[in-house]
Design a protein that fits this description.
mainly alpha, single chain, about 10% strand, rod-shaped, two-stranded antiparallel sheet, 8 helices
Length: about 170
């Protein structure tokens, strides 16, 4: 079967005739065109399987859009590939640009606690504390905020709360 396939490939007069030659494979005799279609389908299925896992998490819109552009380019490259080797050489879309949306539970708790503070009870640190609270509320309201930004706002607010100095007579 291999020798017959080689002879047919050598005598073919066009690329389409070469693609139509049946060659031995694990599934029996297939054409190069069928083998290429199978390789493309398999590569796309692997990418879709990974995407299904990725989509279980929430990413910032800008990072997700960057990933989607890479995904579309990868799929276009697969469609444009003319050999199985080209398909196999196409890398998976890069996931390195994906940024998870931050968990804001601890930040919300700190804001709730900070909002119980009364300026009249403190003799020092109120302005810095108030600025930290305002910044924390902005981050809390930013649904696109990455975890690092959330963590920084929480740390800054907690630091400024601990630096508040109570007036005598307040506990």
């Amino acid at each position: 079967a291999v020798n017959n396939a080689k002879e047919e490939v050598n005598s073919a007069e066009s690329a389409e005739e070469v693609k139509a030659v049946r060659i031995p494979s694990a599934e029996g005799l297939v054409t190069l065109k069928e083998e290429l279609a199978a390789a493309k389908a398999e590569k796309k299925a692997q990418i879709e399987e990974r995407n299904n896992q990725l989509f279980l998490m929430s990413y910032t819109p800008s990072s997700f859009e960057a990933y989607r552009r890479g995904y579309r380019e990868t799929m276009q490259s697969i469609d444009a590939a003319t050999t199985v080797e080209e398909v196999n050489a196409i890398p998976f879309p890069s996931e390195s640009m994906l940024v998870l949306i931050g968990d804001k539970g601890a930040l919300r708790e700190a804001i709730t606690l900070a909002e119980t503070k009364n300026q009249d009870h403190y003799i020092e640190g109120w302005d810095e504390f108030f600025n930290a609270l305002r910044a924390a509320k902005q981050v809390e309201g930013d649904w696109n905020a990455a975890q690092g930004k959330v963590d920084n706002a929480l740390a800054y607010l907690n630091d400024r709360m601990t630096r508040l100095v109570l007036k005598d007579g307040y506990a």
